[in-house]
Amino acid sequence: MTQNRSWIPYALILPSVVFLGLLFVVPLVQTLWLAVSDNGTPSLANMTTMVTDLNFGRSVLNTFLLTLAVVPIQIVMALTMGSMVAKMNGGRETILWIWTIPLGISDLAAGMVWLSILQNTGYLNSVLFGLGIIERQTAWLTYQTPVALFIGIAIAEIWRGTAIVMIIIVAGLNQVPKEFKEAAEIFGASPWTRFTRITLPLIRPALQSALILRTVLAFEVFAVVYALGGRNFPVLVGEAYNWQNQNQNYGVAAAYAVLIMVISLAATLVYLKAVKVDPERLP
Amino acid sequence: MSKAMNTSGYAGFISARRLLFWSGIVALCAWVLVPIYLVALGALGGRTGAYQWPKNFLPTDISLQPFILFLKTEGVFQSFLNSLGAAGITVALSIALGAPAGYALARYNFRGKDSYRLLVLLTRAFPLAILALPLTVSYIRLGLYDTVLGVGLIHTVLALPFAALVTQGIFLGVPRELEEAAWVFGCTRIQAFFKVVAPLALPGLVATAVFAFVISWNEVFAASVLTVRHRTLTAYLLTVLSESPMHYRFAGGLMLILPSVVFIFAVRRYLFAIWGVSSK
Fold first, then answer.
1. Which residues of chain B have a CB within 8 Å of the CB of A205?
2. ipTM exceeding 0.95?
3. What is the secondary structure of A207-266 as a DSSP string?
4. Alpha-helical segments (H) within A119-145
5. Which ranges does the record mark as transmembrane (chain A) (predicted)?
6. B96 contacts in A (CB within 8 Å)?
């Protein structure tokens, strides 16, 4: 572009920079300040209240366990789905559309969907009853059945969140040149070898961004949990919500917010380091 | 003889593998679709359906009546309108602010381009909806608290980075030569953009808009924190959740699902192009 028009790109990005500055950077700084201050003076009171709260330990543990259970399963399922559609000829579009439907479904709706299955007079109990496994309606979503509640929430999260991982991975798979696989096939590589030695390294960038996106979302889990278990299963964002809306204590809510942000950032950094993307090996 | 047996054995092996492959596909489709079918049964089955035991898996006792009754419940329709309003603001703002940025990223090399991309990517490492917490105070001061506009603004923070990255990819797909040709033939830059680039980029921009809509429509946390009386549909459903009967919850779930499914269907062609770009 010519020199005298060098202001154009700045004029084009300026509105979005101002907007993100006002509604992303400023609130970010405000959150940090709210969390480490008390009536305008620096103080760790909010942090202390958060850490000594009865639900704190449980909510940290629950959030981490849920993330650890959900994200790997979603990645494996998405890789399986991606490899399956890669082998299809006819009907590929339809199958992909069906598999991406959950992308448009909110976490609250996903919670309600699985509530219809897992509630006392729900479909799961009806099937188990029909098979003679249970004799009467059984509750799965109470605080007395923490394991069943955990599994129910994890299933709802996997059901809803796998679509986005699959889309990113399929988009990555689409960019792998056919020649690579054909060459490997000619040299007699087994399907498994082709997958681990050719496909996986080549879709690393896609894998990395899917991992980052899904993990950040998993630490934000809230509405699914609330719809299925109410307050029987405390998670970090749920605690932040309660401190803000029920207790009207914005400081402690901000402390939770900072904690969630720090965890998300740390996870992102870990993925950036652990899943190295070597630009020279990309197609 | 033995050779013939070998081939038939091989064919059997192939068809067994195909059978396994297709049962896997069917199972995964059922995994996605059956729960939606079941919640629809719950939404259309009414109170008696919700407590029926054991459940009937066939759609024999359903009617639209319970769902219409749910729609007539106080607050439902208003919150539906609020959701539409917030999503409309999100779409308008994220395209109006994001598309120029995407165009700049696609067409120009300028100092600070990398920093800008970093800012946009940084938003992805943050749980953005959490920012609603400190915003409460500023919103009250500015008169934005408990307004549809306020919710639309925070939802734009969620959708804008996405819109900037995706529109960058869309504008990269419009050949630069066409635009330059328009300049040669005497168009100003602005004319060239609206007469040449915009029509070619339009389908992609529409797909981006649809995604911005779905992002806002589905957002629960920020909307619940920032509203009290002017709730969006998700915020309304979340707050009345514990006191609503089961079949109302299912009806609410179905009402949230239907528009997004239609929208995803409308943009299905662009799903992979868009995510291929935005995941780079």
1. 279-280
2. no
3. HHHHHHHHHHHHHT--HHHHHHHTTSS--HHHHHHIIIIIS--HHHHHHHHHHHHHHHHH
4. 123-130
5. 12-36, 56-82, 94-117, 147-173, 211-229, 249-272
6. 15
Contact flag B276-A125 (C-beta cutoff 8 Å): no
- Average pLDDT in the B174-180 region? 88
Does residue A180 lie in a domain region? yes
The Cβ of residue B114 has, within 10 Å, a number of other Cβ atoms equal to 9
* pLDDT tens by residue, B11-63: 677 788 889 999 999 999 999 999 999 999 999 988 888 888 888 888 887 88
Over residues B199-250, the pLDDT tens digits come to 989 988 998 999 999 999 999 999 999 999 999 999 999 988 888 888 899 9
The shortest CB-CB distance from B242 to any of A113, A222, A230 is to: A230
List the beta bridge partners of residue A38. Answer: A41
Residue in A34, A130, A219 nearest the CB of B54: A130
Q: Which position has the token pair 């969907």?
A: A113
Searching chain A, which residue's CA lies closest to the CA of residue B33? A98
pTM of the predicted model as reported, rounded to 2 decimal places = 0.89
Tell me whether residue A48 is in a domain: no
**Residue B138 and residue A30: Cβ atoms within 8 Å?**
yes
Please tell me the CATH code under which domain B73-278 is placed.
Answer: 1.10.3720.10
B261/A112 Cβ within 8 A: no
Residue B54: cis peptide before it, omega within 30 degrees of 0 = yes
> Which residue among A16, A101, A104 places its CB closest to the CB of B164?
A16
Q: Which residues of A touch B260 (CB under 8 A)?
A: 104-106
Q: How far apart are CA A181 and CA A166, in angstroms?
A: 20
**B23 to chain A: which residues are within 8 Å by CB?**
none
What letter represents residue A210's amino acid?
A: A
Number of structural domains chain A divides into: 1
Domain range for A141 is 56-238+256-281
Residues of chain A short of pLDDT 50, as ranges, are 1-3, 283
CATH number at residue A269: 1.10.3720.10
Is residue A142, in this structure, part of any structural domain at all?
yes
Q: pLDDT per residue over B126-159, tens digit each? A: 778 888 888 888 899 999 999 999 999 999 999 9
Domain borders along chain B are 2-63, 73-278
The per-residue pLDDT of chain B, averaged, comes to 87
User: Which of A16, A105, A223 lies at the smallest CB-CB distance from B257?
Assistant: A105
**Chain B residues in contact with A254 (beta carbon < 8 A):** 133-134
Residue A84 lies in a domain: yes
Under 8 Å between Cβ of A176 and A83:
no
